[in-house]
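FORM 12-B: Structure-to-Sequence Request
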């Protein structure tokens, strides 16, 4: 036994300095290690400590901007926060190639979120459903009383829907509150409304409440994006045929389909992180939506590709996107606030449309690279530069050293050091 323990009473009550001291001693960090954890970038300790528990530092990721995006006739610079190389460049390139056809055409449904209330141990579920239907207006009024501000800006519960489910522990009645959350992502709003109506639902159904929480499968809040890439811009019919072949493969092979959809989320998540949105909720909803499978009954690609009558490539995306421009950290994280200013969005729906366009662009770019020069080329170019810089290669020599490692097919720290010695 080392004698070390992570069982620290009241860690959350300790100051930043006290927390760092504990971590430094436990993990044998050097002074330079612990000094790294003192950097909060654009946040400070108090701001970060309000966001999550037991804060010791922040984990910055690179923030890039993708140009060339033309969405519904409006130009955008799109902030993207991501650590993976080539993503920002790929999205930008796809947007550039789409501009001759008018860029991206994107629409979205109203910002309706689902709040679920689980009711167990109901003697007669059909009678319970009728009771809920009979008192729907009263239930909606009670739910809306949980958030008067939302009602004042035009939001609120639009409907209540019942679903009857069988589980191994018995039959369950799921009550869905369909809530227009306006410009919020809506999780906290919906959770509050679900909790507000729970006791009355128990009373009128005779059931026992279980879960009361938002669903991240926001099937009523869907973005549809479309773009056309002209064959003249792509330069080769082989690329179009390759993209179509790759898409059809994703339709039948879940192993490929998972990676296909991951490429979409590379772009969407990067915008979500940059704007302070919950990328985990977006991911959960997207993959659940893909797993619904439609007519195929299997996990499906979130994009579709086809050729139009001119032989151009047509890309389409359909995806649920629950995002906000108010609430959460969108209005308290200084970088997220600036990113929203860069985008110049006035509604959450506009932000969702931008994300849909970026997701489609990123997916097209990834497939295009796969069926032409391969996905590794761009990755390796940046990776080799990172390795060169990590061993101290002077900035003016980084490109040359990186290119030499690529040509030798030896992108390694050891080779970078040898080449650095040669410069010396």
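FORM 12-B RESPONSE
SEQUENCE OUT:
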């Amino acid at each position: 036994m080392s004698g070390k323990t992570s069982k620290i009473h009241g860690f959350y009550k300790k100051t930043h300095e006290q927390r760092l001291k504990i971590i430094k001693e436990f993990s044998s960090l050097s002074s330079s290690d612990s000094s790294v954890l003192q950097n909060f970038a654009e946040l400070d300790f108090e701001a970060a400590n309000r966001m999550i528990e037991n804060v010791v530092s922040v984990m910055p990721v690179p923030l890039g901007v993708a140009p060339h995006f033309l969405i519904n006739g409006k130009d955008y610079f799109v902030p993207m926060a991501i650590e993976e190389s080539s993503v920002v460049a790929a999205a930008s390139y796809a947007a550039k190639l789409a501009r001759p056809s008018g860029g991206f055409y994107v629409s979205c449904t109203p910002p309706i979120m689902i709040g679920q209330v689980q009711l167990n141990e109901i003697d007669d579920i059909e009678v319970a459903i009728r009771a809920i239907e009979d008192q729907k207006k009263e239930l909606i009024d009670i739910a809306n009383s949980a958030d008067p501000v939302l009602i004042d800006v035009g939001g609120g519960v639009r409907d209540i829907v019942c679903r009857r489910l069988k589980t191994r522990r018995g039959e369950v009645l799921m009550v869905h509150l369909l809530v227009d959350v306006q410009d919020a992502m809506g999780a906290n709003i919906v959770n509050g409304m679900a909790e507000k109506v729970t006791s009355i639902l128990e009373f009128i159904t005779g059931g026992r409440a279980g879960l009361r929480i938002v669903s991240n499968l926001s099937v009523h809040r869907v973005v549809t994006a479309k773009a056309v890439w002209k064959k003249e811009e792509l330069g080769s019919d082989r690329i179009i045929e390759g993209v179509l072949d790759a898409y059809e493969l994703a339709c039948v092979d879940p192993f490929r389909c998972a990676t296909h959809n991951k490429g979409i989320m590379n772009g969407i998540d990067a915008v979500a992180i940059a704007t302070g949105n919950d990328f985990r909720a977006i991911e959960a909803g997207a993959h659940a939506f893909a797993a619904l499978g439609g007519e195929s009954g299997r996990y499906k690609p979130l994009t579709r590709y086809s050729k139009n009558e001119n032989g151009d490539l047509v890309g389409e995306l359909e995806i649920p996107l629950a995002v906000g421009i108010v609430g959460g950290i969108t209005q308290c994280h200084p970088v997220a606030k600036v990113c929203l200013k860069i985008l110049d969005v006035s509604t959450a729906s506009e932000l969702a449309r931008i994300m849909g366009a970026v997701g489609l662009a990123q997916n097209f770019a990834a497939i295009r690279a796969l069926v032409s020069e391969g996905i590794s080329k761009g990755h390796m170019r940046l990776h080799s530069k990172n390795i060169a810089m990590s061993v101290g290669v002077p900035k003016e020599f980084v490109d040359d050293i990186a290119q030499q490692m690529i040509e030798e097919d030896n992108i390694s720290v050891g080779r970078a050091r040898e080449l650095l010695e040669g410069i010396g």
